[in-house]
User: Fold this.
Amino acid sequence: MYNLIMNSQVSFTEKGMTNQSGWTIILAYIFIPTLISIISLSISDSILSKSISILIGAIVFLIVIFFAVNETRMNLFNTIDNKWVKYLLLSILLIIGYYFLNFILNIILASIYSSANDLTIWEFWGKPTSINQQEVENIVKSTPAMSFFSIVLLTPLMEEIVFRQGIFLVNKDKRIATLISIVVFTLVHMIGTIGNPENLWYIGSYILIATSLTFIYNWTDEKLAYSHASHILINLVAYIVLMAN
Assistant:
């Protein structure tokens, strides 16, 4: 399977995408959402303000990238070809596989953590989630409509452009780019665990998400639409679960 992923027939990277475009994407991701967040928090640190800053940050980033990076527009708008059915089915199967493996991983880690800390597994499940997850839960429950557009639709596209396309443009070696993509995606989503080692067990879930999405991106000849759709599905399921609770 690894060789199949690494030897996809024609990738967008091989069609002339530049290293400069990759760095443009990465730097835009570092500075645009951060700057908007700083401005927003300087006005108010309320949950509504955080939700607005996430939405505006994603919108501004996507507008800038769509105008500044021609390759992103090419990638998104030239997706449909004679392989789209195969790509779609592979993406769906990988996401199903992700949920299955994540379920098993959570049971194993929960059992280990519960035993080590003299908790029942049910007491463990009642403990607070990761810092990143807590923040998302607060935002989703406080601003559900706005969160749907930002967290379910726009943020996945922004993250796929950065963690998949951007990284693969900067590093043309697919093996190295795949590893970097998985590691960076995981670290960015685990920032909130610094100083709170109890939440480190969530790293497994983020590694599985990153691995699934990166494999989908590789497997579909580096076409963003499929990893973006898969990322939307993952976030949508999480959104529905949060709203149901």
